[in-house]
Amino acid sequence: MTVTYSPRELLVFSHLKGTVLPEVWRMCAFTCALAYALCHIYNPIRRTVRDGGPKTILYYIFHDCDAFFGLCTSFVTFILSFFNATIFGRWWKMRELCGTVNGRTVDTCVLLSAYIKDQEKLDEMLRLLWLAHALHVHSVIPSSHAGLLAQLVEGGLLMPGEEHAALQQCSSLASSTPISIAYGWFSSRFGEALLALPPSLHSGLLMSVQTNVSAMRASAADVLMYLATPVPLAYTHLLEMMVVMYVLMAPIGLVPRLLWMAVPGCFVTTLIFYGFMCVGKLMLNPFDQKMADAFEVNAFLKGTRFACLEVSSAVFPARLGEEGLRFRNDKPADTAATAAAGKGGKVANGSAHRVDSGRSDSGEGSPRDLVPALRPSQIPPSGSEDGLRRRRQSPHDSPLLSAALGLGGSMEELARFPLPMDGHMPGFKDS
């Protein structure tokens, strides 16, 4: 998911909800009103002293606050800059960690689609990858823990029975333990599927996949670590107290120096210091859905799942083309054999392609006229549990598609989802 901003949203007064103004306008209004009132108090005193009158205690208080305000500016600027730099670093790091989980999940799907030959094993491993991803996303949202396992079972990501019981025994879903269990299940299934591959692929493929698994598990755990160890509350309270005192001191400190210009000066000072403090506090938890710029974790889930389906639908059929399955836009390897097949509408010389009987004898035509044909030994009967291909029908007919759409998902969400040229996708039942 790409977050973009329209030119209208870049204008503050046309998009107030996404700015810091809703958080600071009360304080800005208060300091400006206070500065306006102090101007009416200080202006007569200033005129009296200017005309040779005595300097009263209020006169000295105003000027002493002016000097003290300059001293506080340096300290508040330092502590606020350090706080914002620390908070933004944590916010950006959590963003990178979430991106690592999303990206490594798709990268693992690429490897599985390229090498795993069994469709059912591929679907099972994708399900476990998505289960671990879902557990990671829900672990950072405390409000989603209630009934989570039941939702995962209903969504097709978690199997009832042993899997449900294993996760139910975890002390908390807001920890990395359930995520580690799900990745452990995935590693176990991958190890079983790896035995069916040539031994020359075992070492490299195992290292690549396990590196991704370790990175995903570590990134998910690091996100929880950052959330569980926020900036010390005492530091945040000290900062807030200093900033509030500073902006309340601004009117009495700026009035002797600027007089009536102190009113807009207090607005700018409050907006900068109090505003940056509010922005830093909003970034403490980037998963808080009350924040306008909170991470769209549900979009992360569906976006990653759809990306995995798109990768599988492209990589899996392309790899099987080496064993006899080819897309419609692939040219036959043997033109003569294809031409012979075109005359009788049959496969000749073991070619994996057959040509429509209505084509010319020369066998020359558009590649789109080619229809993929597989040897009977390669395709199990339609509806069997180990079927090589499944067509897109509905979430009820495809457990993998149901898991990808999630609860409340609809087939309309797949309108942008491209099918391969042969019309098939892994994870969808035969029609």
UniProtKB/TrEMBL annotation:
The lineage of its organism: Eukaryota, Haptista, Haptophyta, Prymnesiophyceae, Phaeocystales. Residues 353-362 have a biased composition (Basic and acidic residues). Keywords: Cell membrane, Ion transport, Membrane, Transmembrane, Transmembrane helix, Transport. It holds the Pfam family Bestrophin_2. One of its GO terms (molecular function) is chloride channel activity. The chain crosses the membrane at residues 57-85, 223-252, 258-280. GO terms for cellular component: plasma membrane. It is a multi-pass membrane protein. Residues 336-405 are annotated as: Disordered. It is found in: Cell membrane. Signal peptide: none annotated. This is Bestrophin homolog.
